[in-house]
Each structure stands twice: as C-alpha cells, then as structure tokens.
Amino acid sequence: MKNGVLEQLAQFVFEWIPEKAAFAVAADGRYIHLDQRGLDIPLAAGHPVIPGDIAHQVMKTGRRAEDRLSFPDQNTSYYGIGYPVEIGTLPGAVIVLLPEERKKAAPIRYLTGRNDEDWVPVSVSRITHIESAEKKTWFYADGEEFASTRTLKQLEAELPGSFLRVHRSYLINTDFISRIRKDDFTSGLLITTSDGSEIPVSQTHAPTLRKILGF
Predict the structure, then answer these.
(1) Per-residue b/e over 36-59, b at no fewer than 16 CB within 10 Å?
(2) DSSP 8-class letter at 189
(3) pTM for this prediction
(4) Helix-strand-coil percent breakdown of the chain, rounded to 5?
(5) In which residue ranges of the chain is pLDDT below 50?
(6) Given 24, 53, 141, 194, which residue has the most CB atoms within 10 angstroms?
C-alpha cells in the first residue's frame, strides 16, 4: 500500500476515533504503517506481527478482533480493536489502539528457589540473571543456581526496574552488568555479568537495552 493511500486511510479513521488513539496497519506478517498521535508505543513500521496479538488474530480469521496489549517498560496498557482489510492481494489489518492506565503492583523483594532439596528465599538485589531453559526457570545469585516455579513472563512483571528482558530466554539485573560487547559469531550483543556469565541480547531487545543504558 502506498504512503498516500495510508495517509488517506488514516485521515478517514481519525475522523471517528478519539484524539489520543494510535493507528496501525499490518500486512504480510509485519506492521507497514504506524501513526502514534502523541502516544509512546514501542512499535514501528517493519516490526513483525507477534503470533496471538490483535493484528495476527484479524489476519488469521478475517474477522474483527479486540484485545489488550501491554509492554513491560510502560505503566500503560492499550485496548486494541482490529478490522480486516485487503492490501493489494494480501490480507491485512487496521488496528486502533486506545491507552488504558494501569497500576503496577509493588515489585517483589525476594524470590524463593530450590537448591538441591531446600527452598531458599533470595533477595532479588543479589540475583544476577534469570534463565528459561528446558521448560524450567533458573535464577543465579552469589554463584549459586536456583530453580523457580515462576515463568519469565511472570517475573518480568513482578521484579523491580533494574531487571530487563534482553532475550526470550533471559532476564538480567542491570546492576550486575560488567561489560557489553559485540558477539563475533552472531554480530549481536553479548553481556558479561559480574560473576562471569555471558548473556546474549536478541535483536528485538537490543534497542531497549541501548536506550536504557545510553549507548
């Protein structure tokens, strides 16, 4: 779809949606247009459509869909309404996102994990990083490994702001980052923690890491 057509479609949509609402168009597995209208939504043209989100639901079923979207780094979630459209010969979706304020629960201070046969409460300030591997969650503190019953997704919402998602399999405590360098094998970023662990940074999460740490 050409930019001129997108602009015309946006103008048409904005005549009947509230002033503070974002507008997105998706097709062929990615977002091809986004007008934030003053909102701070971590999406951009070219970003892939995530399986299960509103755009994916609309393009898969060819029907209108409604759902909520939230982003870990923000205290605002978004209520989205999606409509099926045809973009050239491809099924597409027009998404309207409305901001929805949400209150964050106080972050947890301790995480209890299993070490051998014992359950050990560990202050989250001592945890260097958390890993999802072999369908289990592991966290590391003072050179020890602990198994947790929580998932990475749950912990991402419960931990304090020093913890950052850098990979689908890793959360890292930024207080324990000692070095960030380019990975010679993948050309991505590689974090070294204070205990010597090396944590890969995925391309999806690298921009957020760069923004937060200022490099």
Answers:
(1) ebeeebebeeeeebeeebbbbbbb
(2) E
(3) 0.55
(4) 20, 45, 35
(5) 1-2
(6) 24
